[in-house]
Hints:
By secondary structure, this protein is of the alpha+beta class.
Amino acid sequence: MTSHCVPCDRSFASHAALLQHRRDSTAHAFDCGICRRLFPSERALNQHLANSPAHAAPVDCADCSRSFSSQNALQQHLRDSQTHPPYDGISPELVKPVYKTALLLRRTQASVQDIVRRSGTTLEVSVVSSLWNAAERLNSLNESPADAQRRAERQRQRSELAQQAEDAFAESLSRQGFVFAREQEQRQQAQQMGLPVPQTPDVRFSARVTICGHPCHWLEFKNYFGFPQNPFLAQNEKRQYKKYVSSFGPGAVVYALGYQKGYPSIEGVGVFRAKEVLQNVSN
């Protein structure tokens, strides 16, 4: 009994001969529709799709919206491009008037856009919003219980968003192949060894890494704009970073929205925006 190949209308003396034909004939090869290459099996095609740089997901440059075929290509673009000067913070002259306006309006029904208009700032809206949130941390003597409750609820929501942002940042590092322990893991490791719970940065690398040329044993992630007038936070941050340097060696603080130029200025502590870290971290 013959076996028939329907696509090419050929008959074969046995089923085994038909299978051999399907394996060997390019007429039945699996086609990559992107680069038009043929593969002898679906497995080979899938392997090609997984490994070929031609099919890698594009990596975008956040500053100029160009896309690149790999992380290495993006980093080369950032090194070579004259349109992306290194980020080294925002001038205090740009930060102070915005924060001053936020303090004046913090107990009104003003919006972030009101602060932008009133201060005339050119800062990104996300930075203005962070300065506005910082101003809200300060109490007012005539604050009603209802106002205090609303302020506390907004702070709770911001804390939830901050945790989500930190988790996403750590996941991005993990996808790049870096091995580290987060706060809970650091506590568990100490308890299992019968040791006192150590200082726990958000990320503690198992081996030193280099970020934008700075050696790092640890990272602390902050989901806001870093500046020295931030109520209740700035001085606590500095004490925190100094303890990490004393315990683990050099590291860095990562401000999701950037930071004021010259802050926090602590020996052994680098300071970066999140996107620079994810573009320039290496073993």
